[in-house]
Write a structure and sequence with these properties.
With 206 residues, this protein is mainly β. 6% of the residues lie in helices and 50% in strands. The protein is built from two helices and eleven strands; from the N terminus they run βββββββββββαα.
Length: 206
């Protein structure tokens, strides 16, 4: 018997997904744009995001998240740009007014899925947090932006390789608020898909 179908199947193991994220960050600049090139520039704030309870879930959750970034020249710490990885460090290989190309390493704050998230996950266990390496590119023009990123699990926790493409529209709401709408397209390889959507023989026996 095929283990993938032996007991139950998670909702849609399809590797392409279209999602809409609505974020309303409140940011405070710790350094002016005119700061010296070798000075640290820090951005801190928060936002709100609506996303699936876990990958493949029909349920959604709304949660707040912190925004933090610090940059000195081509080097940065904080979230990995355009990847969804909340903490890491890296460097821009190309950086000008419109284009950014960079590399980085980072990780998650918590597990991407817990068995306790839903009765449908009983016996499947948790998906452990991992470390990732990334290559990313951004394009910005006024209120429009586009991002692409390639993310690879380097922590050995079965999260494979994932590629994302996102377009973004921004609208300032006064001097401190920014409204952002960003639909995205995601592709994932077999390793990622099996971890998040598949059921192994051991899991099927639980």
């Amino acid at each position: 018997m095929n283990a993938f179908h032996a007991r139950r199947r998670l909702r849609t193991p399809f590797t392409l997904a279209l999602s809409l994220t609505l974020a309303v960050p409140l940011c405070a600049r710790a350094a002016a744009d005119a700061a010296a090139p070798d000075a640290w520039q820090v951005t801190a704030g928060g936002g709100v995001v609506s996303r699936p309870l876990y990958a493949g879930s029909a349920q959604r959750k709304v949660s707040g998240f912190p925004l933090f970034a610090a940059q000195r020249g081509r080097y940065f710490i904080g979230s990995l740009p355009g990847t969804g990885v909340p903490a890491g460090a890296g460097a821009y290989l190309v950086q000008d007014e419109r284009w950014q190309l960079g590399v980085g390493v980072g990780g998650d704050f918590g597990k991407p899925r817990k068995e306790s998230d839903s009765p449908s996950l009983r016996g499947l266990g948790d998906i452990e947090a991992s470390a990732f390496g990334t290559l990313f590119a951004h394009y910005n023009q006024g209120a429009f932006g586009a991002r692409a990123a390639l993310l690879r699990d380097i922590g050995g926790n079965g999260q494979g390789t994932k590629a994302t493409f996102e377009i973004e529209g921004r609208q300032a709401l006064g001097e401190q608020w920014m409204l952002t709408v960003a639909p995205s397209l995601t592709w994932a390889d077999r390793g990622y898909t099996q971890t998040h959507f598949g059921i192994s023989a051991t899991q099927a026996a639980n």
